[in-house]
Amino acid sequence: MDRLVNIYEDRLIAKLERLGPLSEDERHLLQDLPRTETSFPTRHDLFREGEPPPHCMVLLEGLVCRCKGIGDGRRQIVAFNIPGDILGLASILLGRMDHSIGALTPVHVAIIPNAAMLALTERCPNLTRLLWRETLIEAAVFREWVLNLGRRSAYERTAHLLCEISSRLHAIGLSRGHSYPLPITQAELADALGLTPVHVNRTLQHLRANGLIEWRHRMLVVRNWPALKEAAGFDPAYLYELAAAA
Amino acid sequence: MDRLVNIYEDRLIAKLERLGPLSEDERHLLQDLPRTETSFPTRHDLFREGEPPPHCMVLLEGLVCRCKGIGDGRRQIVAFNIPGDILGLASILLGRMDHSIGALTPVHVAIIPNAAMLALTERCPNLTRLLWRETLIEAAVFREWVLNLGRRSAYERTAHLLCEISSRLHAIGLSRGHSYPLPITQAELADALGLTPVHVNRTLQHLRANGLIEWRHRMLVVRNWPALKEAAGFDPAYLYELAAAA
DNA sequence: CGGAATGTTGACCACTGTCAAGAGCGGTGG
DNA sequence: CCACCGCTCTTGACAGTGGTCAACATTCCG
User: Fold this and answer.
1) Looking at residues A168-182, what average pLDDT do you find?
2) pLDDT in tens, A191-230
């Protein structure tokens, strides 16, 4: 068993086990899923809006964003995905993508044919339930984003997103304390926050000036977690199993 | 078989059949689900944020909103639900509500114990799949709301929401042409659009002045559907089976 | 080392929010 | 049937958050 298989197990199976218990049998079926591991460079689109993809993917390494555009160049990042997340899962039952999924960093993924995934859910009702649960949590996160965009100021909103990412990375062991790699640009942050890059820049400076964060060398350091949570009005309840207890 | 039972069938079973085929057997099991039909007045909370409800509901008549608050009085409506929609479905697998569900009009619902619903999904994998699919479409709608709040102006955003509601009501036969009952206040619209009531008022006047809509006697009349779609940048693809072909 | 992408700053602007007052409408009770 | 009260809608003046544009600094990467 080589290293990549271990990554695969660590990521997908650990993720599902956070959602609920897996039987030995189910674990083995997951390990035996036909899959192809591949890497893609930064900015590569793993899925494109409107397409009917023949497969889904498990993100093993790297960071991706799910985004929607309106013709004139405006675009909105609607979610970030981190290692362990399943990409294009919706396409299995919906047939076509309503958004794109793009690599924010070089990524490593396992590609799984939709047919194999479907067959697995037919064989294991418990797995179907875990994946449904995953979709439900994802929907809860979207709801929080709607609240974030609709009713929080740029300052609160930015703080909130940084809190969310911290909690989610913490849950999969990719943060140290409340610091974590955030290898994206301010323009990408802006597309997630519904702001302009210029205003994101000012907002980050504001957060920095208040001693809440630092962000250098693509590493985000939370200097004052309680204050950041407070500023954001952050309550991780909406993340359910995605977050470690904070 | 009395009238209420017919409403129940019309609403829940018609909804599920739009999502995918049901067997005779499944239809009967759905009809035999233990349920209590009840009515609630306007402003009654059917579910409250944070609570672990013992049941879900099928909305038979009326309009409800799902909403999240931040302590200081600010609140955001994250979704509207119309007859046929299942309320509190997430609580079955997630255990607790991350948002409230409130009646915008007098409502009539069928209350179904979570245990019964869970048992049914265990017995019918196909039903589980349909409900999962429903959750996936719901998530797609949330994504569109994130885009709407993040990247569209008040004018576009308002037009977009009016388009969405029109399409969804059309799919369940509750609109005539592109006109439909919209028995909510401008303040509630504001909470859905992330705007203030005052600005919603100005925006609606703008839409009216441009000949796109009228809104009197709680009835929204779309005067120029192509222009409204155009102004909104509305593409119903994200609604999947929830929308009739426009 | 050099060029492109990203980050930073300032001046100015506009979309949307805030506050406040008045008008319209609908429901309720006398 | 009318009068009243409260909720919703409307309007105006003003304020502020966040957007736009443009230039420059910095970092990254080939």
Assistant:
1) 95
2) 999 999 999 999 999 999 999 999 999 999 999 999 999 9
Cα separation of the two ends of chain B: 35
User: How far is the first Cα of chain A from the last one, in angstroms, to the nearest whole number?
Assistant: 35
Q: Which nucleotide is nearest to B208 (CA to C1')?
A: D10
Which DSSP state fits A60?
E
Handedness of CA B114, B118, B123, B127 (dihedral sign): positive
The chain B residue lying nearest A237, using CA atoms, is B98
Residues 138-167 of B with CB under 7 A from strand C: 153-155
Residue type, B95: G
Q: What are phi and psi of B31, to 5 degrees?
A: -65, -30
- Chain A partners within 8 Å of B229 (Cβ): none
Tens digits of residue pLDDT in B43-101: 999 999 999 999 999 999 999 999 999 989 999 999 999 999 999 999 999 999 999 99
Whether the beta carbon of B36 falls within 7 A of nucleic chain D: the reply is no
CB pairs under 8 A between A and B: 131
A82-130 pLDDT tens trace: 999 999 999 999 999 999 999 999 999 999 999 999 999 999 999 999 9
Sequence-distant (6+) residues with CB within 8 A of A13 are: A22, A27, A30, A31
Q: How far is A34 from chain B (nearest CA, A)?
A: 22
Q: At what angle do helices B186-193 and B197-209 cross, to 10 degrees?
A: 100
Q: Is the Cβ pair A129, B131 closer than 8 Å?
A: no
Cα A102 to chain centroid, rounded: 12
> Contact, A89 vs A59, CB < 8 A?
no
Strand A179-181 with A219-222, pairing? antiparallel
| B128 contacts A128? CB cut-off 8 A | yes
A71's tokens:
């013709």
The candidate with the shortest Cα–Cα distance to A93, out of A68, A118, A122, is: A118
Of B98, B128, B143, the CB nearest to A125: B128
Query: Is a pLDDT exceeding 70 seen at residue B228?
Result: yes
